Amino acid sequence: MTYEHLKDFCISRNIDIRFNEPMSIHTSLKIGGPADIALFPNESSISELIKTLTKEGIPYIVIGGGTNILIKDSGIGGAVIFTSRINGITQNTEYRTQDADTECIFVQSGCLLQKVINLCIEHGLSGMEGLAGIPGSVGGAIAGNAGSFGYEIKDVIKSVNLVMPDGSIKNLSSSDIGFQYRSSNITSGAIILSTILCLRRDEPFKIKKRFVEFINEKKSRQPVSKLSAGCVFKNPKDIAAGKLIADAGCKGMRFGDIEVSTMHANFFINRGKGTADDFLKLMDIVSKKVKDKFGIVLEPEIKVLGR
Length: 307
Ligand SMILES: Cc1cc2nc3c(=O)[nH]c(=O)nc-3n(C[C@H](O)[C@H](O)[C@H](O)COP(=O)(O)OP(=O)(O)OC[C@H]3O[C@@H](n4cnc5c(N)ncnc54)[C@H](O)[C@@H]3O)c2cc1C
What we know:
By secondary structure, this protein is of the alpha+beta class. The chain folds into three domains: about 5-80, Uridine Diphospho-n-acetylenolpyruvylglucosamine Reductase, domain 2 (2-Layer Sandwich); about 90-220, 2-Layer Sandwich (Uridine Diphospho-n-acetylenolpyruvylglucosamine Reductase, domain 3), CATH 3.30.465; about 240-305, Uridine Diphospho-n-acetylenolpyruvylglucosamine Reductase, domain 1. Helix content is about 25%, strand content about 25%. The protein has helices spanning about 5-10, 45-55, 115-120, 140-145, 205-220, 240-245, 275-295; strands spanning about 15-20, 35-40, 60-65, 70, 75-80, 90, 100-110, 125, 145-150, 150, 155-165, 170-175, 190-200, 255, 260, 270, 305. The strands form five sheets. Strands 6, 7, 8, 11, 12 and 13 form a six-stranded antiparallel sheet that branches. It has a four-stranded mixed sheet with strand order 1-2-5-3. A three-stranded antiparallel sheet has the order 14-15-16. The chain starts with a helix and ends with a strand. The structure holds flavin-adenine dinucleotide. Flavin-adenine dinucleotide (FAD) binds near residues 28, 67, 83 and 140. Keywords: Cell cycle, Cell division, Cell shape, Cell wall biogenesis/degradation, Cytoplasm, FAD, Flavoprotein, NADP, Oxidoreductase, Peptidoglycan synthesis. Its EC number is 1.3.1.98. This is UDP-N-acetylenolpyruvoylglucosamine reductase. Cell wall formation. Its main location: cytoplasm.
């Protein structure tokens, strides 16, 4: 299949298709070269699209909010699937449980995590307020088991629907997803389509109070208004990566236009003209400093994608 044929296929299915799409406009770091193809399917077209890409041997990756990725300056070969148009939330009796204290909601993967949290507050559903202020989509949060303040998204997940590379839909229960600290075993090629989240009933004003406390705490500790991709490295056991980086003397260190945040050393900031190359070099320098000083090898939390 040529790209022209793929374009015809997409137009006939009402799928927005773009060629040579700059990825810098789709990432929170505002970094990333062009993707050969960018695809914006909706719920009814995604299965057939994935099946077609697989059949035609066109490689693809999936992106939600682009808030935990570094895309290389050389861009992405093949296709990028965006989930932003698969973003519904359903709260109805079909998903109710026998337990009067809990309620389940159905959420599609491209829905913004903060939109779900707002709905939960409004309807008195507790369990997600610790994820306050984490940007990005529900799919991205599940893929990386996002968390903070002792909360992790895995704790509220009942099941997940995936689109498999052959276009089939697979349902996994939470225990099959292999959640660990900032990771899951959802393999590349499988796309999270939707999830059922189960939450505990509580008074909306109590949930809101906790939410506001978490947001304020986050704003006081993290450079949330700057261009970043969140924490660059995972925390090694029993110690914060940010503390190791700060104690290795790296706070404020710069390479090109990328800077180790002076507020939280595990956040690297794009000061405007930063590149992926600069970012990767700074990661190398910081890792080496931490290894030399503490003998600890830091593992990246952000996903580096691209050719
Ligand atoms: C200011 C700031 C603060 C942050 N604070 C936190 C925090 O407190 N805790 C925390 O855990 N994270 C934090 N992050 C990181 C990030 O926001 C989260 O990891 C978020 O859940 C990523 O979601 P996303 O949709 O942006 O994922 P993306 O960046 O789009 O993708 C991340 C990974 O998930 C995969 N993915 C995305 N969608 C799907 C899907 N539908 N199916 C399969 N795979 C998928 C991608 O392929 C990629 O490998 C922060 C980031 C920023 C910028």
